[in-house]
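Collaborator request, handled under Task 6.
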Amino acid sequence: MRSSEDSVAPVIIKRKKIINSSTHHGGAWKVAYADFVTAMMAFFMLMWLLNATTEKQ
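Structure tokens returned to the collaborator:
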């Protein structure tokens, strides 16, 4: 004969991992800043190259 403890199903505890979703947002400004810096670099290189060329009139 089984005791009452043997017939009880085991207790399964499932723990859900809480993920803070706000930590992964806010990276779009980095892309915009990188585009801006690249455009400024290209502009100053263009100005430098135009200044470096000698123009015969």
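The cover message to the collaborator said: "The chain is about 45% helix and 0% strand. Residues 24-52 form one domain. Please let us know whether this matches your experimental observations."
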